[in-house]
Amino acid sequence: MERPLTQRIFAAVAGWGLAIIMFFPILWMAMTAFKREPEAIASPPLIFFEPTLRNFEQVLDRADYLHFFFNSVIVSVGSTLLGLAVGLPAAYALAFHPGKRAKDLLVWMLSTKMMPAVGVLVPIYLMFKSAGLLDSRIGLVVLYMLVNLPIIIWMLFTFFREVPREILEAARLDGARPLRQFIHLLIPLTAPGIASTALLSIILAWNEAFWSINLTVSNATPLTAFIASFSSPQGLFWAKLSAASLLAIGPILVFGWITQRQLVRGLTFGAVK
Amino acid sequence: MATVTLNNIRKNYGSLEVVKGVDLEIRDREFIVLVGPSGCGKTTLLRMIAGLETITSGDLAIDGKRVNDVQPDERGLAMVFQSYALYPHMSVADNMGFALRMAGVPKAERQSKVRDAARILQLEPYLDRRPGQLSGGQRQRVAIGRAIVRNPKVFLFDEPLSNLDAALRMQMRIELARLHHELDATMIYVTHDQVEAMTLADRIVVVNGGRIEQVGAPMEIYANPVSTFVAGFIGAPKMNLLAGKLQCTSDAAQAILEDGSAVTLPTRPGLANGDAITIGIRPEALRVTADGSLAGRVTVVEHLGGETLTHIELASGQLATVKTDERAPAKVGQTVRLGVDPRRLHLFGPDGRAVSRRSEALQPG
């Protein structure tokens, strides 16, 4: 059934408007990255200018980009793998063998996300310090895993809940104990969901800034700390900051672009079945 | 050889008791059908036999060995689920061979066993398809095939035909009967459909409210239901159950219905005068006749082709169904009289239990 023209126009305008509002800061940042410093702070803002790569040269000159990049990769992928290793069995238990308090447990896990991170900065900092984890990649991996675990478990739990119980019961009678049910049934059946969970976890870990800035100095610094290092005490250099930001979010944007079909498929997994 | 013995089996969910002490001895190669209304505990009973539910108390033995704490896959059973529970990402062949793969059977042997089962079930052309590409009946056969491949001692069926349309259900029913004959295995079958129970079972187990109501061969249960529940549940259309009071004289016993009409009973039951009783008459045992003891008005006539059902509202307000082989004995709106053959009458006492027919038989006429 066709919707009336006015409704379609309204939907199109609202959709595009929203998309532009969300995308504008990124576009502006990308433009600023190619401006000279005076152009970057010009008022009124410049829309037309002669693009330059000088900011990128200077940024790459001043810092070892690859060092930050590999830290980001290790920390986001590492925390995601660790998160799946903990989250998959946890979600399995909650979905298929729930105890009396399973629902409460899920809500409690999610509630930890409602607390501002800064509220636990001091205890976490002190724990990291006494454990010798400050400025270490392993420390960030563990921390990011814990930060994203509630979301990982929630997502996996919803995907697992979509799998009919009887399929696993049939497998039980067919001689598949939990580990084999996992390998032969659950993982192939919920692969799109697991993939989108992993992608989301990677993206969240990649973009995390609060902990990385507070807990790393040089050795383990990921790209978010790389950006922060350009907001220097001498004043803000917008163009260079933008160039650094673009370099930091570039890889994850490309990654997101390539995997977006998978991501959307996973996120709507339950809805379309 | 596979016998299944249930000894005082109980199941509680918290304080709720859903299976209340079931004793049952299932013989080797028997086709046993557990039948009852939804929520009566029959599926829970089957799932306990399968090992998918823990047994709260009592003993379950297969071939004389207690298996309460044995894992489902080690009990030598195969189960066909109501929803078929096929593995959607695997081909038909992989679905059927999954159990063998889990058991570490070599691929060549696995394939030959899958092919054998596929031949029995006429599934050979579909072995490479996914379950999603099959019709309901084919999926059902794959589910049965998956069970056959394992060569189990006991087959368990949980309402396997309830998702099929009427024509297919009848076809699969016949196929299941043929399979039982061919495989010569013990089968335990759960259904709420009394037609499936009547047609498939060697013995029917009627379950109600977590207890066994009656166990027996289909015709035995049909002919001698032990309670109003069994009487009403087994047989289609339902047995006519009419409430009344007992009136005994020196040489006869009668049931006085609510409108005062009297039905002569074949026996003098061992009950007191004035006791509340229920008489049960199968629709085929009622007939329209001018000198019948019951009066009523025809409300609906259903022509089924080979037989005709005439629904009658009795003077007492109770409803009765008459089944005849010919055309309808009366038209809608017409007032008729119904005759009852005392020998085909069932009698139930105030507690709903059948009153033994052998007690104090009276000479008819």
UniProtKB/TrEMBL annotation, chain A:
It comes from Kumtagia ephedrae. Belongs to the binding-protein-dependent transport system permease family. It is a multi-pass membrane protein. InterPro entries: BP-dep_ABC_trans_perm, MetI-like, MetI-like_sf. The chain crosses the membrane at residues 9-30, 68-93, 105-126, 138-161, 182-206, 237-258. Keywords: Cell membrane, Membrane, Transmembrane, Transmembrane helix, Transport. Residues 69-259 form the ABC transmembrane type-1 domain. One of its GO terms (cellular component) is plasma membrane. GO terms for biological process: transmembrane transport. It holds the Pfam family BPD_transp_1. It is found in: Cell membrane. This is Sugar ABC transporter permease. It comes from the Bacteria. Gene3D superfamilies: MetI-like. Its main location: membrane.
Automatic annotation (TrEMBL), chain B:
Residues 4-234 form the ABC transporter domain. Gene3D superfamilies: 2.40.50.100, Nucleic acid-binding proteins, P-loop containing nucleotide triphosphate hydrolases. Its main location: membrane. The keyword Transport applies. InterPro entries: AAA+_ATPase, ABC_transporter-like_ATP-bd, ABC_transporter-like_CS, ABC_transpr_MalK-like, ABC_transpr_MalK/UgpC-like, Mo/tungstate-bd_C_term_dom, NA-bd_OB-fold, P-loop_NTPase. It is found in: Cell inner membrane. One of its GO terms (molecular function) is ATP binding. Pfam families: ABC_tran, TOBE_2. Keywords: ATP-binding, Nucleotide-binding, Transport. GO terms for cellular component: ATP-binding cassette (ABC) transporter complex, substrate-binding subunit-containing; maltose transport complex. It is a peripheral membrane protein. Belongs to the ABC transporter superfamily. PANTHER family: MALTODEXTRIN IMPORT ATP-BINDING PROTEIN MSMX, MALTOSE_MALTODEXTRIN IMPORT ATP-BINDING PROTEIN MALK. This is ABC transporter ATP-binding protein. It comes from Kumtagia ephedrae.
